[in-house]
Structures are given as C-alpha cells and as structure tokens.
Amino acid sequence: MQSDVGSPRQAGAISGPKFVAVGHVTRDLTPSGDRLGGTAAYAARTAARLGLDANLVTRAAPFAPLDALRTEVTVHNAGSPHCTTFENVYEGAQRRQYLHARAQPIAAQDIPSSLRQSPIALFGPVAQEIQPDLLDCASSATVRVVVPQGWLRAWNEDGAVQPVAWRDAEAIRGRCDVLVLSVDDLEREPQSLDARTRLAPLVVITRGRNGADVYADARLIYWARAYRANEVDPTGAGDVFAAAFAIGLQQRGDPVWAADFAGSAAAFAVEGPGSDGIATAEQVLERMAAGDRVGVKRDRGMAWQ
C-alpha cells in the first residue's frame, strides 16, 4: 500500500480530529487537461482545508493530480493498474458521460487499522467500487456519512454511463448516521423519497442553488437556504457539502447548524474550478455570519410543501 504524508502534516498545521474518506479518486478528462475528481477526493480536501487531519483511502494508478493532493491529505492508495477515468462528451445540449477505465474495488483490507477509529468517516463510491459492508470498518466513528452516487450508475461495454436503481439501499440501514443525496439522484426514482429518508437517522437532499432539505428520523426539520455565490464550476459542490456537514455535525451536534455550515462551504466550492475554491474554516464561518442567502426564509421544523 502506498501512503504519503503531505507537508502541512509535517509542519504541524493540522490539529483537528481525524477524517477519512473512502472511494475512488477519478481522472476527469477535460478540454483543459486531466483533473482530479471523485467524491472522496473532494471530501478529503474539504476536511484538510477546514483544519482536520484528512485521510483518503483509494485505489488508483499514479497520476499527477493525485500527487498534488498529497500536499494536503494523507493518501492511502492500495494501488491499481488503472485510475477510474471519466469524460463528459457534449452533443449539442445533451451531455453523455463515459467511463473509460475503472480501478480495482476497495476492500476491507485496504483500510488501515489506524483509520478505523476516525471520528468522521465518509464513503463516496463513484463506480460501484465499494460494497455496503465496508461501512463496518468505521463502526467506531461518531459520524459515518454515505454519498451513494456511484451506486446509482452503471455503464455499458462502450463505457456510456447510465442511471440505475439503487438495489442495495437497505444494506446501509444501521451502518451510517448521515445519507447525502442530490435532487438529481431522486429524480431518477421520484417515488423513493419517503423510503430514502428512512435509511439513516439524518438524510440530506442537496438542491444546488435551492439549498438543501434536512430530514431527521424521516421528518423534514429544516430547509437550508443556499448562500449567494458567483458560480464558476459546480463540480463537486455536493461532495464538499457532505464533508462539511459531517464535520459540522461532529463539532456541534446540531444538524441545522451543520447544514448552514455545509451550505457556506459549498458556496465557496462553486466559485473556483474543480476543488480550487474549497475554503478554510475561517472563510466559511465569515460567510455564515454575513448571512447573504438566497431563497425564501423558512423556520426550523416547517415542512416544505
């Protein structure tokens, strides 16, 4: 297993609790060159910027953007002949996503014992590389978060990605504290909203510019309005939100405060390309204090009809 310690860790700049993100990093092919992607990569970088001891468990072949991540995050790479590689191809107004290569699945033995006691663990599959029972490796975590995007996609022999039903959804019940879904995930299965909100004690539905819905024990308790932002690139904003929500929840124990904290972090994320816009804790808290938000104000506990 490859494991590298970045310079901020060596300099003693990180003093927060340990955070581990599990999932494939991706090599995203873009017109401007290769870019690092993947839920776990965005989540780990978010944790690092927010001052935590950020760790990433993945499988990938070496490539330059992953090397750059190691300056902020401790990367535990179990290795693979390939790196999971995505490309978005636009045909007019239509976008098609292709999976050109896929790294090997992540197994329990790939997660170091030193990370299994991490207070915060986030699981973010992108290409069916994680099985639900892998969540048991973080059973001691105070906050276990699942971002299931990679369980909602499949691909054909040409690599064309297509949405699929989440067949193993029930397998996460009792194995996580927080489930974060996007409204796009639900649009594929609109009838599943009620069932999805029962999969974890806390379920958050992110809605981009329309904020996020927070459910506790399957009851809508809060609509978190989005923070005003100058959007440059929305890629990864939901992953940043998920990581920041987990951190806020672990720090304060209040899902409402955590949702506002996460919304502020996500607003910064969309203001730069890729993960460049991810902010520090000080910046996130300053934006929260400024309170420049969009959407109609709703009170805590008010159902959103």
Report the end-to-end length measured between terminal Cα atoms: 50 Å
Number of helices: 8
Strand order of the largest sheet: 1-6-5-2-9-10-13-14-15-16
Mean pLDDT across all amino acids: 90
Percent range for β-strand residues: 25-35%
Number of domains: 1
Helix and strand run: EHEEEHEHEEEEEEEEHHEEEHHH
User: What is the highest CATH level, the class?
Assistant: Alpha Beta
Shape: globular
Low-confidence stretches: 1-15, 299-305
- How much helix is in the residues? 10-25%
Radius of gyration of CA atoms, rounded to a whole number: 18 Å
CATH superfamily: Ribokinase
Number of strands: 16
CATH domain topology:
UDP-N-acetylmuramoyl-L-alanine:D-glutamate ligase
Give a short account of the largest sheet: 10 strands, mixed
Plain-language structure description:
With 305 residues, the chain is α/β, with parallel strands linked by helices. The protein has one domain (2-290): UDP-N-acetylmuramoyl-L-alanine:D-glutamate ligase (3-Layer(aba) Sandwich), CATH 3.40.1190.20. The chain contains 8 helices and 16 strands. Helix 6 packs antiparallel against helix 7. The chain starts with a strand and ends in a 15-residue tail after the last helix. The model is unreliable at 1-15 and 299-305 (pLDDT under 50).
